[in-house]
Amino acid sequence: MRKLFLIIFIMAWLSPDVFSKDTINILTTTEDLKSIAEAIGGDKVKVDSLGRGYQDPHFIQAKPSFMIKTKNADLFIRVGLELEIGYEDLIIDGSRNPKIRIGTPGHLDASEGVGLLEVPTTTKVDRSMGDIHPMGNPHYWLDPENAKIIAYNIAKRLSELSPSDEAYFQENLKAFNRKIEEKMVEWQKKMEPFKGRKVAIYHRSWPYFADRFGLKVACELEPKPGIPPSPGHLKEVIDIMRRDKVGLILMEVFYDEKPARFVAEQTGAKVIIVPNSVGGTDEAKDYFSLIDTIIGKIAEGFEN
Ligand SMILES: [Zn+2]
What we know:
Elements: H1 2-14, H2 16-19, E1 24-28, H3 31-41, E2 45-49, H4 64-71, E3 75-78, H5 88-95, E4 107-109, H6 144-161, H7 166-191, E5 198-201, H8 207-213, E6 216-220, H9 231-243, E7 248-251, H10 258-267, E8 270-273, H11 287-303
Parallel strand pairs: 1-2, 1-3, 3-4, 5-6, 5-7, 7-8
Helix pairs in contact: 3-6, 3-7, 4-5, 6-7, 7-11, 9-10
The structure holds zinc ion.
């Protein structure tokens, strides 16, 4: 008996991958990535997110608690396209955790393989002018078809980090994709009556969503991504909205409502405040309820 124990002990020690049941600590930058990572990783992972869905993902501030979370991570997942430019290097360097350095298996850019929108055609991008989408539009998670790509990237990387669990991650990936496909039928049906309708948006969070569900973005309240509305720009917005009969202003949860309320007053449009990330409102608990919430609010806005 003792001999058997000894053999098992030695085997476990020699091949940690087969015997260790250690969970993989995943740290994501957004709650959307967290939700998808949880769906794929199941009980093999523990996931935490640095940003919260009710915060502007472009302006997350690094906090000392980030360093501690980063220190213990086995896998760091970002949205990419410079969404995390304000804090990523700082916390990865500060954590002194070599496992999650950019370019290592412990660092994943979830945008790999996503068909990007609004990629600048000129190489001259002036960040000092406040352009916070210099690599293209980073809000790709709002198209459920892109959620499948994110899920695929996560499943692939988790399988590399823990090859013995590959079948488990692949099963979860299949289940996730199946659920997206089922929900997609329901979501498209709900959006069907509003296909081709024009909306105004505050920030360019919505082009991927709009493309998928057939809405047209007529104008933005921000003159450029990251630049707050100016009176001159709002005048242009009002003109466009009157001309194109735009009845809805889609706005994220974390911006000042005043400009949108002003434009609404001038045009008779309605302001719809929608979460653009999981955790943006209480209803948006995971990826599926996020899209449910957005579509529910838009449909309600158009109907009433
Ligand atoms: Zn943005």
